[in-house]
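note to self: dont lose this again. the chain is below, predicted strucutre after it. 221 aa total, dont forget to put it in the shared folder this time
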Amino acid sequence: MKFLLAFITLISMSSINAKPTSEPSDFDHSLVEIVESVVVEWEMTISNWDATASLEKNILTLFDTMIDTATLPGWNSDASVKDNLFATLQSQVRELPGFDATKSLYRNLNVTVITFVNSLPVPDWIQKKKIQEHIFLNLIDSLKKIKSPGFDIFNMVDDNLISLVDDSLNNLEGLEPKASVKEIVHAAVKKALKLVQLSGFSPSKTLEQNVADVLVNLLPF
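---
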């Protein structure tokens, strides 16, 4: 669950539209297969996760289950949906390795990319630093294009989370005045996923396929 919420947080804050300059190389495909195998293993540990279902469907199912069982991290039934969504994301982000919510998104994203690339089981002759720099620069360039009130990559992570939660909950379409918590959360999640513009990403794809397609577009080969 921690990886899922971290993944949602990251893609919700991204508007990547990078395209590869050439067809994926054999190395690209090999690296993607390594990452896919990690994703497949992780999916098997999540209750009620259907690896053949879309990412959107799985996320909504997880939220429904956690709301029904009162197990959503940071959730307080007496608080507003806005406060609860922020608390949930905040609690997960704070548990990311090396992540410091009191530091800027810029600094934390750099740490996250380095940690991710260093964790990949690739040969020693592969220049990991080159991969890290390429992915990081692509992400930063894309984040600078986000049109969300109060969002700034040089702001603290917590401040950006507040801005993004506010933006996700504003002007939700198709909701009745007395909409349930589930209906509000569903609408907010769907809106957030629609805002993502990563090349190769689609809420209707599985998590495994999204990770593979997005990663190919971020690789520098």
